[in-house]
Amino acid sequence: MSHPMTHTNAAPTASIIVPAFNAEATLGETLASLRLQTLPDLEIIVVDDGSTDQTPQIAAKIAAADPRVRLIRQANRGLAGARNSGIAAARASYIGFCDADDHWAPGKLAAHVAHLEANPHVGLSFAGSLLMTESGAPMRRAQRPRLKAIGATHVFKRNPVGNGSVPVMRREALAAIAWRPAQERERDWVFDETFRQSEDIECWLRLALTTDWEIEGIPGLLTRYRITSGGLSAATERQYAAWERMVEKLTPLDPHFFARHAPAARAYQLRYLARRAISDGRGAEARRLLRRALLCSRRPLIEEPLRSAVTIAAALLVDGPLGRRLHRAATRPASA
Prior knowledge:
alpha/beta, disordered N terminus, 2 domains, 9 strands, 13 helices, Spore Coat Polysaccharide Biosynthesis Protein SpsA, Chain A, single chain
């Protein structure tokens, strides 16, 4: 069944899309945070993406108690596919995204809606994130991105949006980058379902490169973003390969842009993956990634010397006693 990207007079002000796959351990807390939003005129669309656990039952029980919550079930299509199904079903003018293991601060939705209503040129509104451990405890770390004067170069190199549980977007901006693949019979794609990683940065960068909609942030750490462990180097390689495939896909849109900025962006991406390896305690992997980054470009050293120096030092120390102490301090819950 096709869902047109339009809304009726009875539509809520905002829709929040929650893609969920085998999320029984965290979905209840996520929905609790969304149901506490200070903007009451909302709908919450849980897209069960072929879960084999109790995810749909948990969502259905909450939906029975709160008419603002809706459950959509589908065969597994991945995170991008779940988001696309949620967009197709959404009825509101403003559409936000929250993964099923993350949380929103109570005032997040209201703040983004106010930002978008006051700035008709902005298509994607975002804010910073507080990081939390896999068990849900707040950490002493946060994503505090650049908020203003953001162009495609900033998105490509540093992705200020940060993670997929941050953005609230204008429906018109989503429609501007939607397309219908030849094999698709049900609804448009906004996120590219052929990607199982890097689908978010691909979407934000495509928005920046192909439309006049602006990407702009607001102050505050309004998302609580869960850091999950996953220490296999193969996962790092898959993530990097997906990022490179994103570059390959989008390069024909603006070959000059990518020729100019891809080396530095590649170095930033490898530095980011090195920092993830450091967080997992994989010093050798982090050092290997940093060597690759330096071979691509020295721009991160020039543009962000302190952050780059800290990353290099941490990679050198992470395997030793001091590095382990620093790692424990960085990942210790904030209440400890």
